[in-house]
Amino acid sequence: xxxxxxxxxxxFATGVFGAGMGGTALSSFFTxxxxxxxxxxxxxxxxxxxxxxxxxIMLGGSRDSPAWSPLGASRDSPAGSAAGSAAGASA
Length: 91
What we know:
This protein has helices at about 5-20, 20-60, 80-90. The protein starts with 6 loop residues before the first helix and ends with a helix. It has three helices and no strands. It has about 90 residues and is mostly helical.
């Protein structure tokens, strides 16, 4: 969150993220009903499939913060950090 939002907005962003965790509360409501309908194994397979689908959606739709750079390298110099220079020298 720190790379996406300035300090004044980080609390709001963390709150929105926390609100998204409501799925944990909903799970206690829906899981017993899913087990009744699909059985224990079926409910687990269904939940695994839904989570895998969400993972694919996030993988396709997520991106890094515009302010982020790997290992502290600058945008102009991909090997700008000591770690990046050492990795490039050993290749």
